[in-house]
UniProtKB/TrEMBL annotation, chains A, B:
<dbReference type="Pfam" id="PF24309">
    <property type="entry name" value="IMEF_Flp"/>
</dbReference>
<protein>
    <recommendedName>
        <fullName>Encapsulated protein</fullName>
    </recommendedName>
</protein>
<dbReference type="GO" id="GO:0140737">
    <property type="term" value="C:encapsulin nanocompartment"/>
</dbReference>
<dbReference type="GO" id="GO:0004322">
    <property type="term" value="F:ferroxidase activity"/>
</dbReference>
<feature type="region of interest" description="Disordered">
    <location>
        <begin position="158"/>
        <end position="194"/>
    </location>
</feature>
<dbReference type="InterPro" id="IPR030909">
    <property type="entry name" value="IMEF_cargo"/>
</dbReference>
<feature type="compositionally biased region" description="Low complexity">
    <location>
        <begin position="165"/>
        <end position="179"/>
    </location>
</feature>
<dbReference type="GO" id="GO:0140315">
    <property type="term" value="F:iron ion sequestering activity"/>
</dbReference>
Length: 194, 194
């Protein structure tokens, strides 16, 4: 678990810096928006990333605490603080996923070299980190038998539209399938979030 | 606390239904999107609401559990499950806030009577519920002295752009102020999320 905590620490400190770069890019866009719709749109994305930033400000020290102070026996679902750590990590997996999509949405709009270069750099790292967090958490949730049932497991399976190595943008066929596949079922059952 | 749990239960079951109505409205929009940008845009909002739905599927039974089985002594920060409840409620306050903005963004686009009527109905209830959840949690976090420092307290103060009784849409002046006000500070300090 120590090695995984080191990787989580690296990923979440990296993404915290990335959020700040993205927010700094959006700030003048919001101030100079051409209409109310555009302003609300970027303002909304800005706020969602700000919410994520404020969660990371709490999560990162929690990861550090487990890195520095704890013994292997503390990495157990009987330890409430460890459960909280896993719960937060599971939430921030989605935070990273949503960030990749915020970057993709921005890439549709900001085509100038400076911003598109920055956005592509952030996007490349965030996508890779999202994939790694997803894989690590699948393994950890399985190892600790936490009864965590990822409500989006079927969703992630279909999430190849995030993978730009296949296509430069989501294809109609893929996304249409996702849209149907994602329809919430009646009687939708989800396990505990830890 | 029992009375507050009853209100939370009502608000979060109501918003769960509202998410499903909104997702059903978005589904054909995604399928018939005019281009990749529009498709990703609505697909992204659809996914964020889907993530919120999956959290509510866990939160609502947790509220019910506290409604039905617990005594007043269990409503204490020394009870880990109660802390988890408060933490989830604090998270879903932001979920409601973001939902109001998703509805506002949709209202810019869907002007036909059927969809704008639905969106306005969902928007009116969700805004009222967001305000109530915010007020109740401020009071509860204070009562239990949970050391919860809302990372967005300054933000909420400025959040009158959500209040349509003042203006029909965010005004440029207000939003510009928000954008500046929301800039993350260096040395940003945030208390525990419980």
């Amino acid at each position: 678990m120590k090695e995984e905590l080191k990787i989580f620490y690296h990923i979440f400190t990296t993404t915290k810096d990335a959020i700040e770069k993205f927010m700094n890019m959006l700030d003048p866009v919001i101030q100079n928006a051409i209409d109310d719709h555009e302003r609300l749109y970027y303002h909304h994305i800005f706020e969602e990333e700000e919410q994520r930033l404020s969660r990371l400000v709490v999560l990162i020290p929690l990861i550090q605490k487990f890195q520095q102070e704890k013994e292997e026996k503390d990495f157990s679902p009987t330890n409430n603080e460890f459960n909280r750590l896993l719960q937060e990590l599971n939430l921030e997996k989605f935070g990273l996923h949503n960030f990749v999509e915020h970057l993709d949405l921005a890439l549709f709009r900001f085509k100038d070299e400076e911003r598109s270069t920055l956005l592509n750099q952030l996007r490349e790292v965030s996508y890779k980190d999202y994939q790694q967090v997803k894989a690590m958490l699948a393994e950890i949730n399985g190892r600790f038998d936490t009864n965590y049932v990822d409500p989006h497991a079927y969703h992630d399976e279909e999430h190849d539209h995030l993978d730009r190595s296949a296509t430069s943008a989501p294809t109609k066929a893929t996304t249409t399938t996702n849209s149907r596949g994602m329809q919430p079922k009646k009687g939708f059952t989800v396990g505990s979030l830890i």
